[in-house]
Structure prediction request, 231 residues.
Amino acid sequence: MKTTLLLLLLLPVLAQAQNRRKKDFLVTMTTDFGTMRLLLHDQTPKHKDNFIKLVNDKFYDGLLFHRIIERFMIQGGDPNSKTAEADRPLGSGDVGYKIPAEFVPALFHKKGALAAARDGNPEKASSGCQFYIVQGRVWDEAGMQQQISRIRNMNGHVPTPEQQKVYQTLGGSPHLDGNYTVFGQVVEGLAVVDSIAKQPRSAQDRPLKDVRMTVSGKWVKKKKLAKLYNL
Prediction:
């Protein structure tokens, strides 16, 4: 009787888990420069689960993209940025914990990659809340080889020939591979990254005019996402 009761209690949980595997979490990031939509990678479960929790908690709503460097990336997620004065330095805010690095060679810093910011800790653990989205640049062969040398000096991940082709066509920031965790990808709205990255900025790389975000998410069937975004 106890075994039967336990199974009956577990059935809804198992059904929910099975249904969840058929869906993925679609992130919508809204700014004054347009809307981006992003998907999170299953290969980085700690980062994915943490980001989903923060999005569901509305943690990112009203925060700034507080650091932008054209042809490199746009960074946000510092909780101190929500009420920061115009000249206040940003980038040190956190949520009191780090996430262990999840380096996956198949996930690399191509344009639109969502990755975790971090400080200089030797474990290369990620910030619990700050992230960046890659803009990068398109690399010619000579530039690509220079990047590979830089990666080796940083003990990072040397991109495969296929990944190098992406860097030479779509673009990105290859020297970050193997040193910062990539955990998602922009699937719609890459032009928004370009628009934010080119805004006038201070000597500390903070936009002169605040660029705020609102972030939400919903579970969508993977089949529908595959059709929408040619996945």
